């Protein structure tokens, strides 16, 4: 956010389409904007509350962008990655072990 302006949805954090998170994150953005702006008592307070919105959302959306990019890279380069001795099988195992935690993080909204 900058002054009385804040971006949300794909304008603020474009996503690779693999995880279906673009619309989900835009919905969370909208909810967080309503939560922050409902506290405004005077128009001079708007930039401060929009800054709060931005600070709250940036970490979660950055993590989910990273997951989406990783998912895209895996789809494109999976066969190539599996040809790398030790690294390919290790990466596959770590992905399988971490998937329940990643999915829980992705599909549990953070309001």
The helical percent reads 55-70%
Our Rg estimate from Cα atoms comes to: 18 Å
Assess the beta-strand content as a share of residues.
under 5%
SSE order, one letter for each helix or strand: HHH
- Give the N-to-C terminal Cα separation: 18 Å
Which class do the helix and strand fractions yield?
Answer: mainly alpha
Largest sheet: none
What is the overall shape?
elongated
Multimeric status of the protein: single chain
The average pLDDT is 84
- Count of strand segments: 0
What can be said about this structure in brief?
With 111 residues, the protein is mostly helical. The protein has helices at residues 22-37, 46-82, 87-106. The two termini are 18 Å apart.
Describe this structure in words.
The structure is a single chain. With 111 residues, this protein is mostly helical. It is built from three helices and no strands. The longest helix is centred in the middle third of the chain and has 37 residues, at 46-82. The radius of gyration is 18 Å and the shape is elongated. The two termini are 18 Å apart. The model has no long low-confidence stretch (mean pLDDT 84).
């Amino acid at each position: 956010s900058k002054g009385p302006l804040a971006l949300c949805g794909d304008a603020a954090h474009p996503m690779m389409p693999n995880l279906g998170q673009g619309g989900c994150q835009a919905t969370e953005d909208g909810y967080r904007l309503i939560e922050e702006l409902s506290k405004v008592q005077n128009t001079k307070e708007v930039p401060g509350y929009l800054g709060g919105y931005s600070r709250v959302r940036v970490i979660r959306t950055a993590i989910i962008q990273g997951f989406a990019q990783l998912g895209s890279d895996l789809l494109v380069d999976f066969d190539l990655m599996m040809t790398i001795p030790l690294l390919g099988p290790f990466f596959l195992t770590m992905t399988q072990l971490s998937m329940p935690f990643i999915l829980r993080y992705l599909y549990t909204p953070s309001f």
